[in-house]
Structures are given as structure tokens and as C-alpha cells.
Amino acid sequence: MSFTVTDLFKKYGDKVVVDHLSFRMDGPGVYALLGTNGAGKTTSIRMILNMLVKDGGTVEWNGAPLTLQNCNVGYLAEERGLYPKNTLMDQLMYFATLRGVSRSDAKKRIEYWAERLEATEYLYPKQEGRKPVKPKKADQLSKGNQQKIQLMLSLLSDPELLILDEPLSGLDPVNTDLFKGIIHEEIEKGKYLIMSSHQMATIEEFCTDLTILSRSKTVLQGNLADIKKSYGRINLFIKAEQNLRPYIEAAGITVMNEVGFSYQCRVTGETQANGLLKTLVEQNIPLITFELREPSLHEIFVEKVGEVHEE
Amino acid sequence: MKNNKAGGTGAVFRYTVQQHYKTTSVRVLLLILFVLAVASLPLLRMVMDKDSEVSSSDITTVYLFNDTGFEITADDIRSDERYAEVEVKACDGDKDAMRETLHNETKAVAAFITADDSGMGFNIQGYYGEGSDISENDCETLNHVLQDGLHQSIMRTLNVSQDQIDTMNLSVMSQVNTVENYLSGNEKTVDASTHMSVNLFYSYAIVMISAIAMSYIFQQCMEEKVSKLVESLLVSVSPSSLLTGKILAVTLFVFGGIGIVAAGLVISYIIAKSTGDVGFVKRAVEAFVGVNVSALHFSVGTILLLVGCVLLAYAIIAFFCGIVGSCCSKTEDTQQASIAVVMFLLIGYFVASFTPMAQSDAVNYFVSLFPITSIFTALPNFVCGKIPLVIFILALVLQAATVFLFAKLAGAVYRMMLLYRGGFPKPAQLIRMLRENRSAAHTDAGKEG
Q1: pLDDT, tens digit, for every residue of A249-281?
Q2: Would you tell me which of A33, A56, B51, B221 could form a disulfide with A9, CB atoms 3.0–4.6 Å apart?
């Protein structure tokens, strides 16, 4: 199976909102769409799902134009909600019916996901005292618990392609871990995931390939490991029990951040870092930490988006 | 498992209907309407019986004071068989004395006939005692008899014969026809007044049904936008299936409600019939609509035609509401949307109200064929013989084509506006957006197709 987006283009009046976006997934995994607010991520997703008419470009699933008929898509939208006055069970059954899931299968899947997402008490409320059991409605749930139901809606059809737009925003740490666990499970099941998020650490945890968008244009694209490799290990973290600034400056290294005797530095490469290490060892300076790292996705993102903003 | 687009309409319809009827307030309202409908005819009979004339009288004596100068004799009163046995006694118009007399004679009444102070007419006042055996209706009926008697007396005084009076009371039917219609035997049989009444009543019914549907459709068009569910739904069902399912559901709400009331009325009629004469129903309908129902020749065919025409009219207005309702992003927008729909309805309603006055075939043909006015006028014009069958069929075909066109347009606007979050668009803006969207869709289809 493959998923290909080619030259996706959209403009409103004279304003280009997605400028020839292309990417490809040849196998299961997570593809990340990153970008600043208004960079065109959500518009791209809406065009991929045929919710918005494209001004140009194609979206293909297994070599054929992606439609709701040839691809089982699950979508957790950024702007998400539920019918506030309808019961949760009715809404889940409705979505399952719309996706062609039989009633008996839908019941089993709802039961499974309710347990997996720890939402059983909302979907199958127990009788308290003599009061009759009333099914829960959406407006009786907290935002986080509503988000669980919304994730259930997107997973009910057991989709081949799962698109998650900001899936973890607004969740507490416990529910964040719960959602992350489910995303990992979907990856292990061999699903194709497209994920959009502002939380770089989360993306870094899941994605293999990515595209960074800024002001509608693609500013960086490729395999995350390769991208990081191409930057080299240029982040140096040092922690000591005395002031090291004179030695660092003498080695021509830039200090990016300094807290006590901890230093976050930017080096030109491993040679420069090794030169500093040699000096410190020769001077018999005890070191707690001396670590040379690749840049984080957050740093790459800020750098790339910053470049575009400066232009 | 792929998404089931074709089955989407049915699923949306079922879910919307299920949620609507699950609402307690809706069920209570329908129950109240049903109970009121069941009770309506027996209640109507009670009201009409109260105002109706008696079939036999309990009055034995009438004390008559006549100050008009036109003599009313005992025979004038006894000519009505209900009062054939009454004794008529003249009195002097002293109300205090009469109060005592009527207190003692429980089967006697008094009637004081006087000239109006302004000299423009006469007054007839009937009185019965507090402990009297006489009903108010009996007294009212006697007043009507005295009124007729006074008229007869005036005519006699003016030397007008009974034949002349009968001739004067003959009803007049006015009608205008062309010589061609006369020669071809296609003379119109319904006068302008009946035509106008039928037009007004039918248009009123269409406006009422549309007004109920309008608010439901607006609410349904906005529901997913307001609850932010729209994007999640669009990967499961196409916008046109979503809109069609919702409009079909609203159709069931509206006509289901009408059906419940109709069922209640049928039960009410059965109850009324089992307890007496139901002639009052026809009288009430004629008083309400303002026409002679018998003249309209109602049959099963006419009723089926009526149902078909109402459904066509409803479909046009429902899809128009769908187009306008799709442009609403928030509750405040429904105010502007309502104005658009009300304008649409008022054009048809006023045209239907005023065209009978024109008494022109050309006008009748035009308003029957132009779809916006046709839904209000085609059926009344046909029933009243103002347009021939061929024009009526053509009008229905044009209405069906309009339904198709509006349905397609509503689907396109709904799809386009589902993700739109701006203010209520002006018509020019909406047309521009549709053009841009259509041109992009063509490009898209060309590349992928």
C-alpha cells in the first residue's frame, strides 16, 4: 500500500495557503506534518480528505485517487466536538453505521475501546441507589473525556489511514500517555498515520518522516533520522563544579545558555568539541556531564521556520 | 471496511428522526396536538350548538312591545312552526312591570322592538325571567323570527308583494367568460370570490407548513457546525447525503405532525358522528375558508392531487431553506436567513392573493408556470378552472425540475459552506464562491479523472 500527495495547491483569492505540497508514504508508520499556526497543515489535511476542493495536485491511495470508497480513513480533527444533547452511545452507533460497521460489530468495538480508553463508566453507567440509569450525554463530560469519545469515533471503523490533527492537545499527562499508547498500538498494527502537532517531542517520539511547512511552503522534508544526521552533532551539553566559560570561549565555542555551571553550547563539529574536552582533561577539571548531541526536532523547526520569517 | 456513501442518507435520516422523537418536549407537544385534535369536533359542536337555533320552542307566551310603526301580527310569529302555538300579547314597554310578569310566568318571554335613536335601523331586545324555563337559544331564535316579521311588515307597508320579496332574495352568481370559452363549452364555473378564497387558503397552508419546516431545516443545517462535528462526519458521509438525510427527516417531522393531527381529527369525526349530526363540520369549514365546499367537487383524486402538490411545494421551499440555512455558521445568522425565506414565501403568497383580482388568463397562466408562484397558485387555478389540464401538468413538471435544481444547488452550497466560518454571505458573494469552487472542482476532477 502507498499514500502519495503530489503538488497539492490551494489559494483563497490571491492568497496561497498551500503551495505545492508533495510527500509520500511507501509503508506503514507515522508521517508528521509540522508548521506554525496558519502554515497550511489543516487545509492540506482537508484537501487530502476531499473536504475542500483542491486548486491543484493529487492525492492517491494505492495509485488511485483517494476517495471515501477506496480508503477506510479515520480522522481526529483539530476542531472536534460531539452532539452535546445526544447520548454518547447513540453517537458512537451512528458513526459506526455511517462507516458500514454492523450493529453487533459496533457494539463489540465500542466495548473494546471503552475499556481501552478507560471510558466504560460514561458509556455503561451503573445504577446508583434507586435512581434509574440515565445514559450519559456529551455535555456531561469533561473536555478530556470528550476527546476520548472523539478518538473512539475515528477508530471505530478500524481505519487503514488514520489522520490525527493535534491529537494530544488539551490532555492531562495521564490521558496523554493513554493516547500515546494507543498511537503506538496502531503503528504496530501496520496502520498509516498522518499526524499534525505543535508538540515536537511527541512527534519525535512517533514519526519516521516529516514535512515542515511555513507560510504555506515546504521548508524541510525527509526522514527525521537523516535530517538530524545531516545537521551533525552540534549541541554540546557540559556540567561541571566550577566556571568553564573561559575554556569554552578560548576554544571558540558559542554558549547558547548557561545556568550555574551547566552550559548549552553550539559547536561546529566533533573536532571542536573534542579539542575542548582534551583541554579540560589536561587541566584536571572534574566534569559531571560532557555530551555531544544531534539537534532536537524543536531546534530544527525553530531554525527552519525562523529562516523563512527572516526572508 | 470502506465508507458507505450511498447508505449515508438513510443512516442520517434514521439518526435525525430517532434523536428528534427522543426529545421529551417533542413527544409532549405531539401528544397535546393529538388530544386537541381528538377533542376539536365535539368541542366545536358544543360551541356551534350554543349559537344555533332551536328546533322546537318551550315558549307559550310572547309579550310584544312594537314601537316601530310597522305592525307585526301574531300570525307573523306563528308562521314559524316552532312558534305556531304561542300566545302573543301586546305590552306597554314597562320593563319593571315586565320583570315581575316574567318572574311569575316561567314559559313567557318579552320582546321590545324599537326604532334606533340614530334613525338608521331598529332594535329587537328579547327578555326572559331569572327562573325561566326558556333557554337563551330559544329567545335568540324568536328574535330572528321577529326580525323576519319586521322585514315582511316593512315590505307590506311599501306594498311589495311576497313574490317580489322572493325575487329580491334570489342569489346572484357573477361570472365573466370569453366568447371562445362559451362556444367551446369551457365556461368558468367558479367566481372570482371563490377563486380568491381558495387561493388564499391554499397559500396560507403552504406558508404555515414552510414556516414550521424553515426553523427545523436551519437548525439541522447548523447543527454539525455549531457542535464542531462537521469534519469528523465528512470522512463518513458525503455532504449531499448528510443534507438530504436531514431534509427528509424534517419532512417526516412536519408531515408526521400533520398526520398525527389528521388522525386525531378523523377520530374526532368518528366520535362526533356517533353522538349526533355532523353537518356543523361543513358549516364550520365553509365559514373558515369562505367558500361553498360542495362547489369544489372534492374526491379521492382531488385529495391525492392536493397531497402531491403540497409535497412538491414543500420540497422546493425545503431545499431553498437548505441553501439559505447552509450559509449560517452561528445562531445569529438565522435572522438573515429567515428574512430571505420569508421574502421568498411572501412573493408567492401575495401573488396568489392578488392575481384572482386581475381576472386575466394570461396572468393565471404565468403565475401557474413560474415555479416560485406556481407552488401557491397552480393547484387553486386548476381546481377553480382558471388553467387547463395541460398547463397544470406543465406547471408540475416545472416544479419537479425546480426541486431537482434546488436540491443540487443546496448540496453544492452545503458542501462549500460546511467549513466556512465567516458572516452570512451576500448573494453576490455566494455566487462568486460557488463559481470559484466549481472551477476548482472541474480542475480537480480533470486531474484525478
Answers
A1: 999 999 989 999 999 998 988 899 999 999 999
A2: A56
* Mean pLDDT score across all residues of chain A: 89
For chain B, list residues with pLDDT below 70: 1-7, 49-54, 170-178, 181-182, 185-191, 289-298, 441-449
Decide if B419 and A58 are in contact by the 8 Å CB cutoff.
no
Residue A170 lies in a domain: yes
Whether residue B218 contacts residue B328, with contact meaning beta carbons closer than 8 Å, is answered with yes
- Asked if the interface predicted TM-score (ipTM) of this complex is over 0.95, the answer is no
Torsion of CA B301, B305, B308, B314, to 10 degrees: -140
Residue intervals of chain B classified under CATH 3.40.190 are: 61-163
Same-domain status, A157 and A260: no
**Is the minimum CB–CB distance between A62 and chain B shorter than 8 Å?**
no
List the grid coordinates of B27. Answer: 413527544
Q: Is B19 on the interface with A (CB under 8 A)?
A: yes
CB-CB neighbors (< 8 A) of B229 in chain A = 80-83
Is A304 contained in some domain?
no
Task: Domain of residue A243: give its range.
Answer: 233-293
According to the model, what pLDDT value does residue B324 have?
93
- Cβ–Cβ of B231/A52 closer than 8 Å? no
Inter-chain CB proximity B229 and A82 less than 8 Å: yes
Q: Which residues, listed in sequence order, are joined to residue A254 by a DSSP beta bridge?
A: A266
CA-based max dimension of chain B = 104
CB neighbourhood size of B39 (10 A): 14
Domain count of the fold of chain A: 2
Q: Are residues A218 and A266 in the same domain?
A: no
The grid cell for A144 is: 478530556
Mean pLDDT, residues A111-139: 84
φ/ψ of residue B50, rounded to 5:
-65, -35
- B443/A68 Cβ within 8 A: no
**Same domain for A273 and A174:** no
The CATH code of the domain that includes A111 is 3.40.50.300
Interchain contact, B419 vs A52, CB within 8 Å: yes
| A237 in the same domain as A103 | no
Furthest-apart CA atoms within chain A: distance in Å:
80
> Which CATH number applies to B61-163: 3.30.360, 2.10.260, 3.40.190, 3.40.50?
3.40.190
Q: Report DSSP state, residue A27.
A: S
Give yes or no: residues A220 and A254 share one domain. Answer: no
- Which residues have CB under 8 Å from B192's CB, separation 6+? B174, B356, B357, B359
Residue B2 in contact with partner chain A when CB distance is under 8 A:
yes
Q: Does one domain contain both A177 and A246?
A: no
Whether A166 and A264 map to the same domain: the answer is no
Cβ within 8 Å of B, A 196-255: none
State whether A80 and B437 contact (CB < 8 Å).
no
pLDDT for res B290: 64
